[in-house]
């Protein structure tokens, strides 16, 4: 290994694994755009109204550089990751930060983003699929505007998370965050964690606008609509994919991403994005249809 690669490798180990995020922003926006397409006009209008009541709605508009409801819907899907570095919010074990007007909760809820299983399939850590069930019930039943505006971005985000194989991960390696790999397909970051590798497969994190819509259209043409199932089913699917999510070929010092592994992983990631989008859309279709019917004279 050349000296520069030795240095990069050592630096990566010193810095340690990054916190799990499950799909980068592009992946979450793609899931949201596909889900948006499953909603009828009244449900889209209601979703836009619900998100407009969220205190971070102006930030989503600014980042989307658009007032289009679909673009803001896609931006809202990244919010539970955005708050990880936002000083207005606090980790669960920290003293609460000051209340944020319009939000019922200012915790980051890091354990909601994943669920770790042992070799027997028993849950060892994380609350991912359980929180999707809980938040779905909350959106179905609550009449509080702040709870509704807070719940919707969480659901947009967590359904996508559950379809990322490493977010139904091995308990010992933090969903691949403690597994370092060599990736010759990324000249900017040739050494990375396995989890970060999977997060970035859907595309660059700045993907927005026309290119986002084109990518979503391409993916839905390539991959069929899945059976709906439920969060327990989606968790089981991701867990079955886990064994194939680890590169098995030895590189100079680390497991290396081969061309075959890259192609297979890319196809799996794109298929899971599509499945998450359709399933999220149907879930919201059911939940928002109830609210539309209640509010229609």
Protein architecture, described:
- With 297 residues, the protein is mostly helical.
- It has a single domain, classed as P1 Nuclease (Orthogonal Bundle), CATH 1.10.575.
- It is 53% helix and 7% strand.
- The strands form three sheets. A three-stranded mixed sheet has the order 2-1-3, with helices on one face. It has a two-stranded antiparallel ribbon with strand order 4-5.
- A hairpin with an 8-residue loop joins strand 4 and strand 5 (191-193).
- Helix 3 (41-52) crosses helix 5 (69-76) and helix 7 (128-141) runs antiparallel to helix 8 (145-162).
Q: Topology as H/E string?
A: HHHHHHEEHHEEEHHHEEH
CATH fourth-tier homologous superfamily: P1 Nuclease
Number of helices: 12
Approximate shape: globular
The name CATH uses for the topology is: P1 Nuclease
The low-confidence runs, each spanning 5 or more residues with pLDDT under 50, are 1-19
Rounded to an integer, what's the Rg over CA atoms?
A: 19 Å
Number of strands: 7
For the termini, the CA-CA separation is: 70 Å
Beta-strand content: 5-15%
CATH architecture descriptor name: Orthogonal Bundle
Percentage of residues in helical conformation: 40-55%
Structural class: mainly alpha
Biggest sheet features: 3 strands, mixed
Spatial ordering of strands, largest sheet: 2-1-3
Integer average pLDDT = 91
Instruction: Tell me the number of structural domains.
Output: 1
CATH class: Mainly Alpha
